[in-house]
Amino acid sequence: MASIDDVARHAGVSTATVSRVLNNTRTVSEKTTEKVLNAVAELDYVMSSSASGLASGRTKNIGVVVPELTRWYFTNVVEGVESALLEHGYDLTLYSLNDGGASRQSVFSHFLLRQRVDAVIAISQELTDDELARLRALNKPLVGVGGPLPGVPTLSIDDVAVARQATEHLISLGHTRIAHISGTVEFEADFHLPTNRRAGFEGALSDAGIKLHERLLGSADFTIPGGYTAAMTLLKETDHRPTAIFAASDEMAIGCLLAAKDLNIRVPEELSVIGVDNHSLSEFFGLTTIGQSPHQQGRQAVDILMQALGSDHPSEENINTTLKTELILRASTSQAPPIDWNR
Amino acid sequence: MASIDDVARHAGVSTATVSRVLNNTRTVSEKTTEKVLNAVAELDYVMSSSASGLASGRTKNIGVVVPELTRWYFTNVVEGVESALLEHGYDLTLYSLNDGGASRQSVFSHFLLRQRVDAVIAISQELTDDELARLRALNKPLVGVGGPLPGVPTLSIDDVAVARQATEHLISLGHTRIAHISGTVEFEADFHLPTNRRAGFEGALSDAGIKLHERLLGSADFTIPGGYTAAMTLLKETDHRPTAIFAASDEMAIGCLLAAKDLNIRVPEELSVIGVDNHSLSEFFGLTTIGQSPHQQGRQAVDILMQALGSDHPSEENINTTLKTELILRASTSQAPPIDWNR
DNA sequence: TTCACAAATGCAAACGCTTGCATTATTCTT
DNA sequence: AAGAATAATGCAAGCGTTTGCATTTGTGAA
């Protein structure tokens, strides 16, 4: 495997010059640059990242911490991050905290500290003070995606506003018996997502002067089956069946759609359903939703990171950027049916 | 940030000894080991991976190459790999080849060559000869998951056998008008998966003396919507509607289930459906399937890798291990309905 | 042409580890 | 108890880059 010395010799210059060309420090003449590049090509030379990392302190590698990989949102953010990083010549080292405690512990106390990464992107990670402190001690850029982190530039949607918008959409269609399926408590760890979305829901309701009915509140685990089960309970509520459901995620909303079908409840004539995400299956199911685009969020996180890596002042300006979301109208919501007072 | 010298001084030993303790070379006395470990803990010392990598040539990092992240199979393999690697103290650097050509090119010609990884795991990647040669030139262990690779230890299921088993299951239930939804041609790149599964299907059919009917062959893109559309076409075939469908993936099979529901075709009374994967949604949909467990496959790939990294002879023995799969009976298949000869 | 200054290049000392070899401490034999 | 063998440790030379500083080359002005 060729080393920088081989290249230098081959091009008839010093290793310093080769290094400068490869890192394009702009102080090398055109002629020399070309010679070096030729030598590089001829020898199939690729720099050793270890050596470069050791000497410069820069690894050209970004750590990405994610709670798990199998959820739609995470997967898509990671893909966005990955593709953007590739364009910048960076590698992505993935830390998936699947099993909660155990791996989480070692990732924060060991893996991230090996000086393998120049920066880290934390996806939907509510970090403990200790973890945050550890990351800060690294003195490397850190950006969060999916929720606010104290003192860290983050990207996130406004969950309260999103939920409010979804609910208001239903209200504007004349619905008053609106159910909500929120996330179960174990998802609170993700920036209180269930609570926030529920808050938006309740806010919209109370603004419209609609009284919240306890029995119109369900919760599930953000999956299709979870949404299905929750919807089943809600929809069997015979004397006060909702005419609309706002599910805190598209997957749960799809579960609602399937439940309605199994109960022979027509959507949207008898039941409107709205979700959040614009999941890849939503279009297929004709689901009206508030869309967010995690792929884009991932790319944007990289932009922020690159900027931070460029200027060495840890520019504390862009604390929490709120990402825009968009109401996507499809076939699952419509005018509320006339209320059948007999039920 | 503490360096190995600090630790050495703090423990009153040489850096060599510290290094030995940390890499547990078994030649350090118990006493000394303890002293060193204490110093490490006190100083919160974590080794620099760059320095270690440069000096030893080992990075404790594995490259994982995957075609994309959003498909169930890939995500799960990666999760399996990640969790196993973590246990071994290895990092995982992810290369997702989403946009085909562009990134693929740079990953193979540049990223993987930076000596950032000790080995690579290629997931469902049919590699070109050139790419394979490049990887071999690295002289680092390589294991493939998802399909055979010439001269490389790989893990994969026997697609032909799986398809045969699925089809035989339907035949054993008395079905003779069996349709198949295979993958479209662009998925051929994944080790001819569509072709192989179709071959198994046709093999089982011909063994049973059942004539294959052209109009009972569909194809789709391995997604739920794709399966839905394909099934719609198949099931509208009024004069020769299939009584069973074997879909090349669970997602497509779920599409079939949804199509059947929309057409008011009862499953399994009027239509049996079987898929392949044991996707996380399959249980919910009551889908009979041939299960494989990608998570497990990922872990197993790591086992092989660790073994290869341990012994320096690139043990060429375990070329392509065939993974076991399992018929999982659920509610979507049953005895064939009596044939209505009037249709 | 010469000089001053800027641009281009080279020199060589880090960077923080690992490891072969040499040295010292310990244990076992006889 | 002495010597041999073995275990534990230390020394110091790399590993392949980057980069501050010194040096050489090139340029424009006088």
Mean pLDDT of chain A: 92
**Taking strands numbered 1, 2, ... along the chain, how are they ordered across the largest sheet of chain A?**
2-1-3-4-5-11
Largest interface: A-B, 48 and 47 residues
Structural class of chain A: alpha/beta
Distance between the termini of chain A: 79 Å
Give the amount of beta strand of chain A, in percent: 15-25%
Order of helices and strands of chain A: HHHHEHEHEHEEHEHEHEHEEHEE
| Beta strands of chain A, count | 12
Shape of chain A: elongated
Helical percent range of chain A? 40-55%
The biggest sheet of chain A, with number of strands, parallel, antiparallel or mixed sense and barrel status, is:
6 strands, parallel
List segments of chain A where confidence is low: pLDDT < 50 over at least 5 consecutive residues. none
The oligomeric state of the chains shown is homodimer
What is the count of DSSP helices of chain A, taking H or I runs of 4+ residues?
12
The radius of gyration of chain A is 26 Å
Write a short abstract of this structure:
The structure is a homodimer of 343-residue chains. With 343 residues, chain A is of the alpha/beta class.
Question: Please, could you describe this protein's structure?
Answer:
2 copies of one chain form a homodimer. Chain A is elongated, with a radius of gyration of 26 Å. In chain A, helix 5 (72-87) packs across helix 12. In chain A, the strands form 2 sheets. Chain A has a 6-stranded parallel sheet, with helices on both faces. Chain A has a 6-stranded mixed sheet with strand order 7-6-8-9-10-12, sandwiched between helices. By secondary structure, chain A is an alpha/beta fold. The relative contact order of chain A is 0.12. Helix content of chain A is 42%, strand content 15%. In chain A, helix 5 (72-87) links the parallel strand 1 and strand 2 (91-96). The interface between A and B is large, with 48 and 47 residues. The structure holds a DNA duplex (30 and 30 nucleotides).
